[in-house]
Amino acid sequence: MTILMALFTLYIAIKIYVSVMQIGYVTDTKREDAVLLTPAKYVVAGNYAIKKERLSIVESFIEYMLFLFWVFGGFAWLQKITGIDNTIYSNLLFIFGFLALNFIVTLPLDIYKTFKLDKSFHFSKTTPKLYIIDTIKSAILTLVFGGVIFAIIIYFMENYSKWWLYSFVVVFIFIVLVNMLYPTLIAPLFNKFKPLEDEELKGSIEGILKKVGLSSDGVFTIDASKRDSRLNAYFGGLGKSKRVVLFDTLIEKLDKDEIIAILGHELGHYSHKDIYKNIATIGVFLFVVFFSVGNLPESLFLNMGVVPTAGAKLALIMLILPLFSFIYMPIMGLISRHNEYEADKFGAKIGGKTNLIRALLKLVNENKAFPKSHPIYIFFYYTHPPVLERLKALGYEDSKNDDSVILGFLK
Q1: DSSP string, 326-353
Q2: Cβ neighbours of 224 (radius 10 Å)
Q3: Mean pLDDT throughout 70-98?
Q4: Domain positions in the chain
Q5: Which pLDDT band holds residue 124 (cuts at 50, 70, 90)?
Q6: Helices 310-351 + 2-29 axis angle, to 10
Q7: Number of Cα atoms under 13 Å in the Cβ half of residue 389
């Protein structure tokens, strides 16, 4: 118990320290000559980064308070309500009670971020009605899919000494399947998909797919603009057949050549088999988590005044999962940042270096992404290299941010 307390306290302290360093760094840097953005947008992007990080500090404090609540009486209190008969029903009730309380406590912060912070910077376009509908849909998906997965894990816990190993396999397979099926089964529950109407762009996209030995499972646009103004695109599915999904915001802001360059970057990940590397990395992470929690002494639960039921063990996994993630993120980030540079090279070859540079500049401007971060923040959180470094690797030289130079490049 003492070790767990010390580790979680250290984790929260480091998180807050990194946020404080990032706030100080951005505060100082946004007063300097602008890079990649026009001076006006540079200041706005810096202000957003600072406010977002301040919110992150508040979230860290709440996360710590929730941790203390659960380990110093919360789990025991919930167990009295749900019972300790160790049936699948009572264990599921315990788990969903744990999730529901965490959701209620953190909901005000999410509402603030969506309707105050993001709206003040013209990111969020969602309405209260849409937000409520999305929340209900997410809750139903959690109940259905989570209920099935939790029930399977509970069965393993009750019947096998190496439950953690079998549970790891089930969760790993589930994550892979979700990533495969997300564009076709889950995403349409939240967005309207329609075939891309621009036949020229569609033909170009199918052409670059063929260049890397892939086939098209359809090229679609989604109405992302009803929730957010930021730009994005992604491929769906494992194997040779890919569904291409373009945000309507991306089509609106980028021209055909720039879209091809961005998709060329994404295809670089498939060409270099980065998707399989990422799956393997996630697999290692999950194995470590389940092995560690699966071998915790029962005295830990007794110190919390909790009977070590399957539900209590699963809730503890979810409670300390962010701790494992925080430790593992720098390793994943280091691998991912290397892969991004290689994907940029591939995208430049497929779509043209100039087009990729223009696309990245537009993404920075439209997403109001502050182009600089503290090195320690990059170490812990960046899965992509800083965009300034990516552009330099592509041969772009920022010209002291003369507005005419930037705007000329964006035209």
Answers
A1: HHHHHHHHHHHHHHHHHHHHHHHHHH-H
A2: 22
A3: 90
A4: 2-191+269-410, 193-268
A5: confident
A6: 30
A7: 13
- Amino acid occupying residue 254: L
Separation of alpha carbons 99 and 315, rounded Å? 8
Q: Is the pLDDT of residue 241 over 80?
A: no
Per-residue pLDDT tens over the stretch 250-261: 888 899 999 999
Confidence of residue 399 (pLDDT cuts 50, 70, 90): very low
Catalytic positions, written as ranges: 266, 344
Mean pLDDT of the chain: 89
Between β-strands 241-247 and 215-222, what pairing exists: parallel, antiparallel or unpaired?
parallel
Q: For residue 227, give the amino acid letter.
A: R
- As a whole number of angstroms, the distance between CA 112 and CA 117 comes to 6
The span from the CA of 262 to the CA of 390, in Å, is: 13
Mapped onto helix, strand or coil, the DSSP state of residue 14 is: helix
The pair phi, psi for residue 142, each rounded to 5°, is: -65, -45
Question: What average pLDDT score do residues 267-288 get?
Answer: 88
Please state, in angstroms and rounded to a whole number, the distance separating the CA atoms of residues 316 and 70.
9
Q: 88: which 2 tokens?
A: 């699948």
- The CATH architecture assigned to 193-268 reads 2-Layer Sandwich (3.30)
Sorted by sequence, the CB contacts under 8 Å of residue 145 that are 6+ apart come out as 174, 178
**How many angstroms separate the first and last alpha carbons of the chain?**
59
Residue type, 180: M
